[in-house]
Amino acid sequence: MNANKSINDISEWEKLYIPSVVGKTIAQRIVENRPYQSWEDVTSKVKNCTQRKVDALKANGFILGPAKMPKKEVESSDKKQEKSEDTKDTKEAQEVQEDDSVFAKRVRKSVHELRPSVWKVRNHTDIYTKLTEHQFVQNGIVQEVDHVVEIQFVETALLDVRVTRKELDCIATVCNGLRNLNVTSHAVNQDKKVPVGAYLRRQDKSATLHDIALGTESGKKLALCGTWDVVEKCMRAASEDMIQQVDESGIGDGVVRTFFQENIPELLTKAGIE
């Protein structure tokens, strides 16, 4: 991509690669809400375009450029604004503000108290290490309830999905359900989180999660003992189990079903988890 492309310059828009930087949904919103006087104007006018995404645009050579817009597009934009004004308040009251802080608060639930139930569902065995509950107790191993498909993955998948609060609550119920939980040691739980976080923070997703794991001390420890490969297989299995749970329970609507059938599996596939 050539540097210094202006997001305010409509004649250049087809040549820009903003969708590859911020995702299709936010890219479309950037188009619809032009022109912009400043980068602060972008984050203010474009829903879910966080400072992190603005930094990504800048890092990829984008500039604001002159804040001009052809008359026809201005008129079209004004009509869209008028049309949506009446329903804006109601719609925003129903929809979740899709930013990291809201996801962290509404999706991630405390699951520690579910430990006895998780042990029972998992046949009293840690699916990562194959250690039994008896061995944990006998050896004084600190036990923690872990999300098999990390909530970090769920939060990332939600960034490009428009959901209502009710739909988000349904997604949270499934993600924090027994089919996506496992009791493991504190050490394994923490070592598992590090590579996942490192992978999701990377803008270049050409490397797989396994590659990233091998590049971290935490991931190396799990890989050397064969646990990391098991963890990845468990993630895929848990994803399929959550799909089955949604189908069996009928929880949520088409958006929730699509999220578990397409969005989560697609993200895992991109991470190289087969």
How would you sum up this structure, described in words?
The protein has helices at residues 18-22, 24-32, 39-45, 51-59, 71-94, 100-107, 115-121, 133-138, 151-158, 165-175, 186-201, 209-214, 217-224, 227-249, 254-270; strands at residues 5-6, 62-63, 143-147, 181-185. It has 274 residues and is mainly α. It has two domains: 5-91, DNA polymerase, domain 1; 100-270, no CATH class. The strands form two sheets. A two-stranded parallel sheet has the order 1-2. A two-stranded antiparallel sheet has the order 3-4.
**Global geometry:** globular
Task: Please tell me how large the radius of gyration is.
Answer: 22 Å
Number of helical segments with 4 or more residues: 15
Number of strands: 4
Tell me the span between the first and last alpha carbons: 31 Å
Mean pLDDT over the residues: 81
Provide the number of structural domains. 2
* Run of helices and strands: EHHHHEHHHHEHHEHHHHH
% residues in beta strands: 5-15%
Task: Indicate the structural class.
Answer: mainly alpha
The major beta sheet can be summarized as: 2 strands, parallel
Oligomer: single chain
Q: What low-confidence regions span 5 or more consecutive residues with pLDDT below 50?
A: 70-75, 85-101
Q: Looking across the biggest beta sheet, what order are the strands in?
A: 1-2
| Portion of residues within helices | 55-70%
